[in-house]
User: Which sequence fits this backbone?
């Protein structure tokens, strides 16, 4: 089955770190660029970060630049998001998503919830 | 990286057609053909319904269509059905190699 499964979310204090993972299966992971998209409770979708198929190119939203780092391990069919210096406004459901055809997000995981609170 | 502008809400009766707009700039919507639309039902995962401005994923109803003029993209849903009631988001690639979503539009089927 073609799917993405996120993990690693949880409750964390402001200023602390958290690492999210996304396990891909059912397709050739290293053929695709991958992204993280988040959704704060009751709010809209926000693109967070993306990485090319080989990890050679990355991009970040201004809201997370310098604090978050995206990476991937094609041998393990996995995508990661290292989140440092977390803030209350980072509280959201974090989705892992596949970039289809280089132009859109064609496959989504169910998300992992990150709550930043003291 | 400002969010693309969508109306907060639209509504229509069953069988009618509605259009949702998505306004950006020449650095995103106006500059690329990489505009896509996503449908999200409450508590569910987003699902792509239009990509590359006007293409539909395989198997998706042709009641959904997309277009673009200048810096504004549009999603039209014809023959409204109760199951179309959901939140709709547009997205675009940008000139600084990032992606940006619209704020979302809640569609109510009366």
Assistant:
């Amino acid at each position: 089955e073609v799917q993405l499964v996120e993990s690693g979310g949880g409750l964390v204090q402001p200023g602390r770190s958290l690492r999210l993972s996304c396990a891909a299966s059912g397709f050739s992971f290293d053929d695709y660029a991958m992204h993280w998209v988040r959704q704060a409770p009751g709010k809209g979708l926000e693109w967070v970060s993306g990485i090319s198929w080989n990890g050679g190119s990355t991009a970040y939203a201004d809201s997370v630049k310098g604090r978050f780092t995206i990476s991937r391990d094609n041998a393990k069919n996995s995508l990661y998001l290292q989140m440092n210096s977390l803030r209350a406004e980072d509280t959201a459901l974090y989705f892992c998503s596949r970039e289809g055809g280089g132009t859109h997000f064609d496959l989504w995981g169910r998300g992992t919830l990150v709550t930043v609170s003291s | 990286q400002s969010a693309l502008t969508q109306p907060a809400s639209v509504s229509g009766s069953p069988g009618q057609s509605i259009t949702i707009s998505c306004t950006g700039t020449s650095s995103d919507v106006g500059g690329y053909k990489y505009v896509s639309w996503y449908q999200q039902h409450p508590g569910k995962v987003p699902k792509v319904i239009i990509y590359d401005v006007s293409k539909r994923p395989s198997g998706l109803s042709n009641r959904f269509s997309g277009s673009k003029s200048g810096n504004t993209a549009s999603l039209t849903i014809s023959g409204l059905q109760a199951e179309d009631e959901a939140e709709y988001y547009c997205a675009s690639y940008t000139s600084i190699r990032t992606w940006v979503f619209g704020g979302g539009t809640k569609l109510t089927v009366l």
